[in-house]
Structure prediction request, 874 residues.
Amino acid sequence: MPVLCSRCEIKKAHLKRPKTGHSLCKECFFWVFEEEVHHSIVSAKLFNRGETVGIGASGGKDSTVLAHVMKVLNERYDYGLNLILLSVDEGITGYRDDSLETVKRNQEQYELPLKIVSYEELYGWTMDTIVKQVGLKNNCTFCGVFRRQALDRGAMMLEVDKICTGHNADDVAETVLMNFLRGDIARLRRCTAISTGSEGAIPRCKPLKYAYEKEIVLYAYFKKLDYFSTECIYSPNAYRGHARSFLKDLESIRPSSIIDVIHSGENLSVKEEVRMPIQGNCARCGYISSQKLCKACVLLEGLNRGLPKLGIGKHHKLQDKLLKSQPLTEEEEKKFKMISF
Amino acid sequence: MCDLDEGSNEDSMGRDSVKRISSKCMKCKESPALLIIRVGDAFCRNCFKEYFVHKFRAMLGKNRLVFPGEKVLLAVSGGPSSSSLLFQVQEGLSHKASKKLRFVPGIVHIEEGAACGKTLEERTKIVADLKSIFSTSGFPFVIVYLEEVFSLPSSVLQSIFSLPTEKDDLYKDAVAGFMQSCHTSVKKNLCHETVAQETTLTEDHTHASLLSTHAHANETSISAFRGKFPFSPEQTEAVKKLFASMKTLTAKEEMLQTLRKHLILYTARIKGYSKVMMGDSCTRLAVKLLANICLGRGAFLAMDTGFSDPRHGDITIIRPMREYSAKEIAFYNKLFGVPSVFTAGLNTKAPEKASIQHLTESFIVKLQADFPSTVSTIYRTSEKLNPRYSQTPADDKGTETCLLCSCVLGIELRDEASAFCAISISEELSQSKKPEGGQVSSSTMEECCAENKMETLESSGCSCQSRERRNTTPDFWSLLCYSCKLVVKDMTSLDLLPEYILEEANRRQRRTQIKREIQEYLLTSEDDADTAP
Ligand SMILES: [Zn+2]
Ligand SMILES: [Zn+2]
Ligand SMILES: [Zn+2]
Ligand SMILES: [Zn+2]
Ligand SMILES: [Zn+2]
Prediction:
């Protein structure tokens, strides 16, 4: 006898929900998945009617599903939002080409306007040219920092009110674990927030915060959504890698672990007397930064000066010099010139 | 996806530089070095001992929680860490000690063989080994068997709060009182209350279960002596059944820890101890911290792993070994012949992925091998966490605590925009609306977004609101914290839980029911009745 859908109790179940273990038919799964995202959006008051919302679109599964669900919910519940797909072209030969094609197709399928901002436009450097200068081992620092800002800068260009990204529950749980292991209290406190503040940068939110990665894949699969696998071609850092495989193991033991970790993260309380870095704004570009110059501007400065290690190594003492575009001493230059492996 | 990396900072976790063994002790610079604790810290035998002992004293001295003359119960499992704790206390109380420790210790060991599938013979053998170690210490000791949970009274789950307002003053008073009592010798009434309870070391000394012989006057005798053991074969079966009814090893381990805690608390109460010392090492705590995050215990991390845990009110749990690494302890035990007894636990032979606790342990061990600062980093992170008793009224009026772990229930984030609510919604949406009987498996988590109104974005309303929740009897689930719910969810039947838990659950449910019925007649809520102007 076929297993019946536990929700409608009429149709045959098509899948077992990774999150709860319930057996559901396709239609009920879609509905449940979308309702949950709707609940996240409404309960956390992520948007207001009339706002222009940029959806960070990478062509990957998360952002593809996000774009689709946002479109569906905006119509079903009449959010009154003006949705835009926002994409970043890092300028990596062969890597972005396919994913940008996917985003372009999404644009047509969902009838959402698309804006692609390129690194060249924003920074004067493509990732390919950066890799040439810094080597493969260090470029993730660059693409991470640059990509986050790229979205903001693109959003500002388009006068977008808010950005939403495809970060899912697995990503959030993984970040909780990683920040805990690294002892990064400040980030540990921030990383479970569903939306982040608006100082200087554009407010960001994660409507898929409580959606399991596996369910996102299932949703995309059954909806036959067109996406491109965007695992970064460069390996993630060691700690995130450890945290990720640990989380996968946890999930295999107890499927609710992902939500359990987020629940823990949301409920961690940090002592009052623990000092948090003061968030200011970058003196050059206005992006949130705890230093005078934000990381992206330091990285750029390094690239432009031909000192690629500048942004990777310690540069606190050099901030003033960099800000005033003063030359560095020979000794300082030597430190940041060579990339050692 | 590297864009998720919020500027990773791998420098902080870099591998420690290669160890260099200097031939001389770094402290006295005379004797040859015997061991290296951390990079660059090479010690000779004597200096290591001094360092180790000093750390113990410093930990107790810094926190000033143990009053002179106070009765302190040492929870000794027989493992290296708690055995080392026992040894430290022994040394500290001996006449050789330069600054004698001034509290009055006793030992409790919880024997858990029934849950771990050991035969009576195996259990007897281990208990005999432990008894011989305990006897050498000269401290009163008691072996409590896990089976005894089936004769615990439900009062063990009722915390008696008596938190001191000014810890420091009390401590000073106690010290002064103790000094005086030492000079005027017998006049106990001069001393502080806690000192007055002082008993002589030998008074309690017995080899049998103290629980059964010295049961508190108004408690029913915990169990009858049946020959050698203070429990019946039926109770052993009940333990086995209870653990067999739990579908996951993760839940079994949690349950065992909970029951163990209850037995220790009960022992402390009936024997008049006000502090319990646990032997958790830094390494152990790092594992526990991460495991508890994974088990959804984030809100209680600081209490679950901090130096002191005041949640039980009259009994404070303290962890004086928390700054020693497992390695240091192993070194010390080996060098100074500290005896310990190996007892196989629930997961001893289990594969790595058998439980969350076990997985976490092997994960930390591996990570520590790659990044030697892992354990200390996690430990330091935990020091920055807030125990959060200040935010909750620590009294016995109105504060609801978890039936199983006694953590304060109001702390956990349960509003609409929380993981707590998200998972209940997922559960709820995934099944038909037909109400099901009170089965364990079909639980939906309660009270998430019940009272909240949905605003903004012209929403259709939260789906949880559709639930009919008035006049429903407060169910078992509402008595548990997020994490303990997960444990009970893994049980096939609630009926197998020890009587004292079910009884207390009933009592609380009845109370909540009554409170609901009289709600409209109450002018002030019970909680702020005292503080209201
Ligand atoms: Zn269905
Ligand atoms: Zn990358
Ligand atoms: Zn900047
Ligand atoms: Zn020495
Ligand atoms: Zn609990």
Remarks:
- Residues 112 and 118 of chain B are 9 Å apart (CA to CA).
- Chain B touches chain A through 76 residues (CB under 8 Å).
- DSSP finds 16 helices and eight strands in chain B.
- The pocket of zinc ion (ligand 2) is lined by residues A 140, 143, 232, 234; B 2 (CB under 6 Å).
